[in-house]
Amino acid sequence: MENEVQKAISVDEHILNASGLVKDKRGYNAMLNLLQNGLLMYERLGVEDTGEFIKVLDHIGLEWRFFDGGIELVENAKTKYYIREIHNKQPPHKPLSKLRTYVEGEGWLRTRNSDFLNEKG
Predict the structure, then answer these.
(1) The pTM is what?
(2) pLDDT at 22 > cutoff 80
(3) Domain assignments of the chain as residue spans, ordered by start
């Protein structure tokens, strides 16, 4: 089982990967700064690029808010992100029965369709 520090590091890595930002670029470094400090000053990116950076935060679903000198993460934003994106994510359901795959030519679908086509023809 992961301890709290390992869990926080894994959440930060997940957020950085989900953002799609290129490592060693300004946006990536700004995201890293935001995750570590909880706030990002306008001087870091400039007002216009901060506006573009906010779009990335909205896209990945990380909650933030404005303050006088920049933006900051909402209290428990990373915890909410972890619960929503990592903890509650379920793998896609894959039916195990051939009767429920509904692929033409397999299971009962083949006989039903071939019987139906033969009656019309």
Answers:
(1) 0.67
(2) yes
(3) 4-87, 93-121
